[in-house]
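Private note to self, pasted from the team thread so I don't lose it. Backbone tokens:
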């Protein structure tokens, strides 16, 4: 029986910052989606005081839908971009 003892532990050696940078280079639309989500949540909290006669629950639902919509849109654009790179922009041999 042979056992594979040459397991690479390089993925365990990286810290959170370098892991985030590596993931951002692999999928650039994920950090864009996270930043958009944070921006929409921050804007919703800012607008919380001046919501007028709108109920709190309706305001929160609108902010949640907007934030989720931004994230889904960013993920869709990222998928389209990766499909473009893989299938159409790839140099032909």
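Design output:
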């Amino acid at each position: 029986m042979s056992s594979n003892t040459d397991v690479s532990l390089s993925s365990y050696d990286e810290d959170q910052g370098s892991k985030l940078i590596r993931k951002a280079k692999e999928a650039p639309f994920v950090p864009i989606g996270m930043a958009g989500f944070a921006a929409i949540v921050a804007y919703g909290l800012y607008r919380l005081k001046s919501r007028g006669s709108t109920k709190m629950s309706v305001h929160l639902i609108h902010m949640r839908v907007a934030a989720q919509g931004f994230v889904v849109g960013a993920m869709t654009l990222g998928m389209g971009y990766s499909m473009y790179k893989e299938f159409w922009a790839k140099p032909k041999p």
